[in-house]
Design brief:
About 65% of the residues lie in helices and about 10% in strands. It has about 300 residues and is mainly α.
Length: about 300
C-alpha cells in the first residue's frame, strides 16, 4: 500500500561531515590531555571518540535504511536506525554513569591540572560539537536515530563547557572541586535526555504495541461494521518510528464473495488510517471457523 504520509529525508552527508569534525577534535584533546596531564581533558577526548563511534553507527544505519526491500529482506533495513538509536542511547546511559563514578572519585581526590591547554582545547571542542549539533539539528527533530546522535553531540558540548569552565576556575581560583560537580549535573541531564530514546527504541525492537494505540478502541470501531461478527488475534507493532503494522483475523456473519469483503476491507483501512495512523494491514477473513476468538492470542 502506498504511503500517503510525508517523511523527512535525512541528509547523510551532514552526518559524515560531523564524523570528520569529531575525529579531529578527539585526536587534539587526547594529545593535549597527555601533554597537560589533564584527566578531565583525556576523559572528554574519550567521550568525543565515543561520539565518533555512535555517529558512524548512525551513518551506517541511515545508509542501510534507504535500501529497497528484496525477496530475502522483505522489510528492507528499516529497523537499522532503531537499532542504532538503541545502541547510542544505551552507550550514552553507560557513559553518564561512568561520568558520575569518575566525578565522585575526583570530589574525594581532586586532580591538579594545567589550566591553559585545557581551556583552549575544551573551547575547540565546544566549537566543533556546536557546529556538529547545527549540522544534524533538523534531522534530529523527526528521526530517532539522528536524535540519539544529536544527544551524544549535545552532551559532549555540555561536557566540554564544564571542562572549560572548570579550567578557568582552576586557573584563577584553584577550585578543583568545580569540575566534578559540573560533571555530576551533566551526567544526570544526559540520563534524563537519553532514557526516552532508550525506552522508545526498545519498545519498537520488542514489537510492543505503540503507546498511542488503544487496541480496545480499534476492536470497538471495527466491530461496528455490520458484516463483521468478531475481530481477534490482533497484532500491532512498528517496523520503525513511522510505520505501524496491523494484522488480525476477521470473523464474518455471512459466507460472502471476495469482492464483498474488499468493500469491508476498504472501510477498515479508512478507520485505521484516519483514526490511528496505520498504513499497513493484513487481514484474514473467516466464516464458521472454530478457533480461539480471543482478541490477543497467547498460543501463536
Amino acid at each position: 500500500m502506498k504511503h500517503e504520509h510525508h517523511r523527512h529525508e535525512v541528509k547523510g552527508k551532514n552526518l559524515f561531515y560531523t564524523i570528520l569534525l569529531n575525529v579531529g577534535i578527539s585526536i587534539a584533546e587526547l594529545t593535549g590531555g597527555i601533554i597537560s596531564g589533564s584527566i578531565s581533558l583525556i576523559s572528554d577526548a574519550i567521550h568525543n571518540f565515543s561520539d565518533v563511534l555512535s555517529l558512524i553507527v548512525s551513518y551506517i544505519a541511515n545508509r542501510l535504511s534507504k535500501r529497497e526491500a528484496t525477496e530475502k529482506y522483505t522489510f528492507g533495513f528499516k529497523r537499522s536506525e532503531i537499532i542504532a538509536a538503541f545502541l547510542n542511547s544505551s552507550t550514552l546511559i553507560v557513559f553518564a554513569f561512568y561520568i558520575l563514578y569518575e566525578a565522585v572519585i575526583r570530589l574525594i581526590n581532586p586532580v591538579e591540572i594545567s589550566g591553559n591547554l585545557v581551556i583552549w582545547l575544551a573551547f575547540g571542542s565546544i566549537i566543533v560539537n556546536g557546529l556538529s549539533v547545527l549540522f544534524i539539528r533538523k534531522d534530529a527533530e523527526e528521526n530517532m536515530n539522528m536524535k540519539s546522535a544529536y544527544l551524544h553531540l549535545f552532551g559532549d558540548m555540555m561536557t566540554s563547557i564544564a571542562v572549560m569552565t572548570g579550567g578557568i576556575l582552576i586557573k584563577y581560583f584553584h577550585l578543583y572541586w568545580i569540575d566534578p560537580v559540573f560533571s555530576i549535573l551533566i551526567a544526570i541531564y544526559l540520563l534524563y535526555l537519553s532514557w526516552n530514546i532508550f525506552k522508545s527504541s526498545l519498545k519498537i525492537i520488542m514489537q510492543f504495541t505503540p503507546d498511542n494505540i488503544d487496541i480496545r478502541k480499534i476492536v470497538k470501531d471495527i466491530s461496528k461494521i455490520n458484516e463483521i461478527k468478531n475481530i481477534h488475534h490482533i497484532h500491532i507493532w512498528q517496523i520503525d518510528e513511522h510505520d505501524i503494522i496491523f494484522e488480525a483475523h476477521i470473523d464474518l456473519n455471512d459466507n460472502i464473495l471476495i469482492t464483498d469483503f474488499e468493500l469491508i476491507l476498504q472501510t477498515i483501512k479508512e478507520i485505521l488510517h484516519s483514526k490511528y495512523g496505520i498504513h499497513h494491514l493484513t487481514l484474514q477473513p473467516e466464516f464458521s471457523l472454530t478457533d480461539n476468538k480471543q482478541v490477543i492470542n497467547n498460543h501463536n
